[in-house]
Amino acid sequence: MNVLLVDDDYFVVAALEQKIDWSALSIDQVYTAYNIAQAREILLQQDIEIMVCDIEMPQGSGLELLAWIREENYAVQTIFLTNYADFNYAQKAIELQSFDYFLKPIAFDKLTLILSKAIYKVREQRRNESAIKEGQLWQKNQRKLVEHFWRQLSTEKKNAPSSAALAEAIIEQSLPYQLSDPFLPLLISIYAYDQSLGKEDKDLFNYALHNVLTELFHHPSFTLEAMIEVKDNHYFVILRWSSDEEAALIETACASFIQKANRFLKSDASCCIGVTAPLPELYQGIQNLLRMNEDIIKHRNQMLYLEQYPQAEGVKAAVYTAPDLTRLEEWLHKDDPVSFLIEAKRCLYDLIANGQGQILSASVLRLFRLDMIQLVYSYLKSREIQAHKLYTGKIHDQLYEASLYSIEDMEKYIEYLITTAAEYRRYAAQQDSVVEEIKQHIHKHCGDELTRNSLGEMVYLNPDYLARIFKKETGISLGAYIIQTRIRSARQLLESTSLSVYSIAGKVGYANYPYFSKLFKQDVGCTPSEYRKLRQEAATSM
């Protein structure tokens, strides 16, 4: 497959040549042109499937070039580059059936995945053309039927389908299978890096993933029948053997996939390899793979085999042995998070080493996580910090859930746990800063409900501890400060607005007017109405 790069800027062309991994995209030849005339010459002489083209060029626009391509009936997938988000450009590009419209400056990772999507479309067009030539256009619908068949088999959670039901489905849907055909299920897990399209643009990422799998699992000995996402970032890949099973071929393909996932998809990956079985036995193998994926803790970029699953005969799951929690606790109380992390990670890898020859199960890692959480929570409690409030929110929940996916994810969660604790411990130790934050909040929200509990939650501190340090820093109790602030705000409203005294009471946080009036008189020496009258008289006499 060939690609043509067209841009009047030499440096843009050079950057595209050098920063896109064309070999990973299975591009055979990259041609370059710096104006429309050069591009036409190349298109006349070479088979070009994909073109990346600038729109604004001094000797003719990219839109003019694409119009000529359409007139000549060349099947070229075109990705336009432009400096301007111009609607007219976009509209014309759509009319000319361009593949995509990409704004500069170029984000090469995203452009790479858009290219992979274009490559997939080129291949799909080739398959369709081939099917038309052979009088087999029905193959396109058959692919949908095949995908539907495998999706049902992969996601069915109630009962295994009977041989009769499978045979009936094969006949009804004209599937190219026999019950005795040997199939191998793989369960692939993807761990997208930060800023990867695996997190930012899932649809585009899935196109790229399918492209990589189609390329790697294409072999005379087996065919890729389906790729089904069974849950977020976990995919079943179904292979059918067309000759005798060769485990080494699958290992090589999985190892190559992990490398390409790192390099091309900007993600880590793991492959759980199932057991080859005829169609009636495949449902149970799929269920076993799902349980294995849930129960076994993996390293990222690792291959695992269903035969290693603890349920398999002779394979035992590792037993949890608690680490030296006293030593870990010492590092916490010395306010040394770095040493704590080093020790915690050593304990984590000791679990793996001590269970040599055994499988590290999710239950073991879950107990380790619980010990780490209890240590950190106990430490924070000793510092009057409310850990259950501190560790709430989307980031914590995502890291907590992912912590059982792999050893590396557990490391990441423990690091987040201790780093957050250390940072907040340092903040809470600066009592004057904490008190100042509380004072600012009271001033801005004096009309809201303000209690020791609500204010303590705001700064993740024990309410009684917050009240003590507040009085220590200000010389006044927290409750008295709230009243003073509210009365001060009420005085200002009485002086500067025509609001009724009842409305003012509500605005400064008092629904009970008599109680407000009582507090106001205690602080100022007169009722709110008397205060307004006195201020008005004073203003008139000046």
Could you describe the 3D structure shown?
Helix 5 packs across helix 9 and helix 21 (478-496) crosses helix 24. The mean pLDDT is 87. The protein is 58% helix and 12% strand. The chain has 24 helices and eleven strands. With 542 residues, it is of the alpha/beta class.
Summarize this structure as a short list of keywords or feature phrases:
single chain; alpha/beta; 542 residues; 11 strands
Short précis:
The chain is α/β, with parallel strands linked by helices and 542 residues long. 58% of the residues lie in helices and 12% in strands. Helix 5 crosses helix 9 (202-216), helix 9 runs antiparallel to helix 10 (247-263) and helix 12 runs antiparallel to helix 13.
Structural class: alpha/beta
Helix share, percent: 55-70%
- The count of β-strands is 11
Proportion of strand residues: 5-15%
What is the overall silhouette? Answer: extended
- Quaternary arrangement of the chains shown? single chain
List the helices and strands and how they pair.
Layout: E1 2-6, H1 10-19, E2 29-33, H2 36-45, E3 50-54, H3 62-71, E4 77-82, H4 87-95, E5 100-103, H5 108-133, H6 139-155, H7 163-172, E6 182-192, H8 197-200, H9 202-216, E7 222-231, E8 234-241, H10 247-263, E9 267-273, E10 277-278, H11 279-295, E11 303-305, H12 325-333, H13 337-354, H14 362-382, H15 387-390, H16 394-402, H17 407-429, H18 431-444, H19 452-458, H20 463-474, H21 478-496, H22 501-507, H23 513-524, H24 528-541
Parallel strand pairs: 1-2, 1-3, 3-4, 4-5, 9-11
Antiparallel strand pairs: 6-8, 6-9, 6-10, 7-8
